[in-house]
Amino acid sequence: MTSQAETGGRTYVVTGSASGIGAATAELLRERGATVIGCDLENAEVQADLATPQGRRSLVEQVSELGPIDAVLAIAGGGKTGMLETNYFGAVATLSGLRPLLAQSPSPRAVVVSSTSSLAPADERIMQACLDGDEATAVALLANDPAAGGATAGYGAAKRALNRWVRTSAPTPEWAGAGIALNAVASGVVDTPAAAWIFADDTIRRAVETAAPQPFGGFPGRPEWVAELICWLAGESNRFVTGQIIFADGGSEASALGDHHWR
């Protein structure tokens, strides 16, 4: 657990701070003496829409005006619309846009929230367009090609592309070379407003739980459980972990893949 001694005096930028995992993370950090710059559509110190290029620029500008920062936690996401725009392009723009300011900290850290949905196969064309920074093409492919699978598949594709971005970016001179740890936390199904549609229908709930069992902790998980891991990765105690996609999912990824990675 991250202690007050580790977080006190540090400033954390938390996107998606008004609800869900973002709110739980912001609350934990504040309880432990950190300064939190919350970012969300409303009810936050910085109000901006990460689904739009203008909103992303506004977020970076507003945070930059508030002074030095020590960690960026890109948690905003989910939803049933703007899947690629918020979950991939908004997250990457937040991290990349604030990286120069973050690099001025003596112990800079960055964490982005992914999902076990990233384990599902995704349209390679959409993911490549994301990684190429071609938002218009990625969005058009998702909207116009039935084979892309619609909104649900768009969420998985966004998170899968985000995992790939973290893996390729983290070891570079701009991140590790500047002393910035960059990691992703891939959460399982957690009791948040963004996941409320799963729990509203018993048939959907059973189907999701059967497809993605969470044998440790149960279904759904709690946002504060994921927040604890985020806080540690973003703290000064993390001195040797970067470029990792860490699943906080009650064992869902292990249940799905077993020892696949090690064969």
Q: Mind explaining what this structure looks like?
A:
- By secondary structure, this protein is α/β, with parallel strands linked by helices.
- The protein has a single domain (4-118, 159-252), classed as NAD(P)-binding Rossmann-like Domain (Rossmann fold, 3-Layer(aba) Sandwich), CATH 3.40.50.720.
- It is built from eleven helices and seven strands.
- It has helices at 4-7, 20-31, 53-65, 83-102, 124-131, 135-144, 150-169, 196-199, 202-211, 223-233, 252-257; strands at 11-15, 35-40, 46-47, 71-74, 109-115, 181-187, 245-248.
- Helix 4 (83-102) links the parallel strand 4 (71-74) and strand 5.
- It starts with a helix and ends in a 6-residue tail after the last helix.
Secondary structure elements and pairings:
Blueprint lengths: L3 H4 L3 E5 L4 H12 L3 E6 L5 E2 L5 H13 L5 E4 L8 H20 L6 E7 L8 H8 L3 H10 L5 H20 L11 E7 L8 H4 L2 H10 L11 H11 L11 E4 L3 H6 L6
Parallel strand pairs: 1-2, 1-4, 2-3, 4-5, 5-6, 6-7
